UniProtKB/TrEMBL annotation:
UniProt KW 4Fe-4S keyword: no
Protein name, as recorded: Putative acetyltransferase, GNAT family protein
Superkingdom of the organism of origin: Bacteria
Organism: Bifidobacterium mellis
PROSITE patterns named in the record: GNAT
Span of domain N-acetyltransferase: 1-201
Keywords associated with the record: Transferase
Amino acid sequence: MQIRPMVWADMPDLVGTFDATWKVQEDPEGTVSRLSAAHFILHYLVGATRARIAVDGQDFLGVTLLAEGRGEPCFPQAQEELEQVDQQLSATTLGARTLDRARQWQLTEVKLEEKCGLAVPPQAELRLFLVSSRARGRGVGGALWRDNLEHLDQAGIERFYLHTDSSCDVGFYDHKGMERLAELKGRDHAAFAGRDSSDDPQFFEGIDDIFIYAGRVSDQLGRDGDHGGR
């Protein structure tokens, strides 16, 4: 296994892995689902200052996207690409509804950050930590985790945070001793967002719990047994 910088040509692997993990179930043909995956990947790339890929030969294994709060974005073209994807999603009824759900989720995360005091945030955010289902159990998540911690330590960054949800391995972060700053149960999403759940019952009834975790880089580096992954 090798961990290397992401290049733009890796985008299809990222989008395909995200799509396989979080499909839009109402889209049997898969077009809207893949566009939705592209929307999320591009959303995470906007502002990301470090992007690392785990590979085994030509096989994609996982990715981490980090925003350090300073420095230039890795992919300045991400914003324009995101706008183009959003236009394509908006062109159909299902696509427009899917985009509304994505933006609702992202606005909820921002509101949750504000509620738990991240208006003055830690110095870095791990925006995406994704391991392919084909690579689970091979130590890929642990290797990517250590790679980011070592980078943050060398950069003099003391603290970082991340968002996750109940569709992921939340226990990984508990095992790492990360501090859970915020938790929003799925049943509370609509009220928290000031929305009527009857506007989109399928979305709000099936929505995951979401969490914000934070930690000190030195504490994480000092822990033993780094393995696993999201």
